[in-house]
Specification:
Layout: E1 7-13, H1 20-29, H2 49-60, H3 66-82, E2 85-92, H4 102-123, E3 126-134, H5 139-152, E4 157-163, H6 175-183, E5 187-192, H7 198-208, E6 212-215, H8 223-232, E7 235-238, H9 240-245, H10 256-261, E8 265-268, H11 280-291, H12 295-308, H13 313-326
Parallel strand pairs: 1-2, 2-3, 3-4, 4-5, 5-6, 6-7, 7-8
Helix pairs in contact: 3-4, 4-5, 5-6, 12-13
Bound molecules: adenine and zinc ion.
Zinc ion binds at residues 11, 13, 163, 191, 214, 271.
Length: 327
């Protein structure tokens, strides 16, 4: 898969995709001192997942207005499109965008959407948004987040999810928020099976009734669960480079290939690319090296991603056609 081969990405955190230079520029404009989150080379610097979450919050603290998010969206989509991404789904959090106030959130979402429309014309990339509650902010906040999402659900904001520290709270604590989002017509995904074991994947499916799982790779520790995922057609938003960067696996031991062999619907995403020194192009290069995957295999997985995308059927048909035409 070359840099320009068409790709579909389902799991990308908008703030987590912010280039370090972009965040430094914002910090300068706002006279904010966040120098401590970068190493000497100017990359984001953290010691483990929990420190990563803190650095993520610090970087995000310089994004303060809808205009900031407009600029961020343009920068992120330009980079995604340069790596061949034709369709992307981004996680957005009303926690960061207006402090879960519906009216402020609407302004942020409109600014992001306007940027997405510019990028679609400029770079040929289509964006859909997934509101995510942040697990470590807690279930109460998640209810407010779900109400923000429900108020703005539509053809651009199409999904609801859950990210953050998987060790805190249980999926069932967020059931109210997911029920509200489902009732508003939003499609559902949740991070699980990254820092939690197979039971975290089971709980997310049973208690939140999600159709996709963010990561989900630790399902491999329970082969009965793997069979269930395959039978039920649950889609995993796998982010191999993120898992490798955070020390969960080495490339050759990453379970994506085994999950795929066992019939689970796996897809490929970058999660927070500059944090994990990755791009969609690099993910494909590493997977090709590790598992000898060829163009046909990658095309198959991008079709799985297109089929699982939280978008309308006309958009899905267009993306599938773009994938076919390039093959
Ligand atoms: N927020 C941003 N990236 C994340 C990840 N990989 N897991 C959980 N929460 C996140
Ligand atoms: Zn993620």
């Amino acid at each position: 898969m070359s840099k320009t081969s068409p790709k579909v990405e389902l799991h990308l955190h908008l703030e987590g995709a912010a280039p370090p230079a972009f965040i430094r520029g914002m910090a300068r404009e706002k006279h904010a001192d966040i120098a401590g989150i970068f190493d000497e080379a100017g990359h984001y610097s953290y010691t483990d997942f929990w420190h990563f979450l803190k650095v993520y919050d610090a970087a995000t603290s310089v994004l303060r207005t809808p205009e900031d998010y407009h600029r961020l969206t343009l920068a992120v989509l330009e980079e995604s499109a340069a790596n061949g991404v034709i369709y992307s789904e981004c996680f957005l959090s009303p926690d960061f965008c207006g402090g879960r106030d519906v009216s402020a959130w609407r302004d942020y979402l409109n600014a992001i959407r306007e940027a997405a429309e510019i990028a679609e014309k400029r770079d040929g990339i289509t964006l859909r948004a997934i509101v995510t509650a942040v697990r470590h902010i807690g279930p109460e906040a998640a209810r407010e987040t779900a109400l923000c999402a429900a108020e703005t659900a539509g053809d651009f904001l199409t999904g609801f999810g859950l990210a953050g520290d998987e060790k805190l709270h249980k999926p069932k604590d967020f059931a109210w928020a997911f029920d509200a989002a489902r009732e508003a017509g939003l499609r559902l995904t949740a991070h699980a099976g990254e820092w939690g074991g197979p039971e975290s994947v089971r709980d997310a499916l049973a208690d939140l009734k999600v159709e996709r799982i963010g990561h989900g790779v630790r399902a491999i520790e329970d082969l009965a669960l793997v069979d269930e995922l395959a039978e039920q057609g649950v889609v995993l938003e796998v982010c191999p480079g993120s898992n490798v960067a955070l020390g969960l696996y080495k490339w050759r031991e990453h379970p994506i290939a085994e999950l795929d062999r066992r019939g689970v619907k796996v897809t490929i995403s970058t999660d927070d690319p500059p944090f994990f020194h990755t791009t969609m192009t690099r993910e494909h290069e590493r997977l090709a090296e590790a598992f000898d995957w060829d163009e046909g295999q990658f095309l198959r997985l991008h079709k799985v991603a297109a089929e699982a995308a939280f978008c309308d059927e006309a958009t899905r048909a267009r993306i599938l056609k773009q994938l076919e035409t390039a093959a």
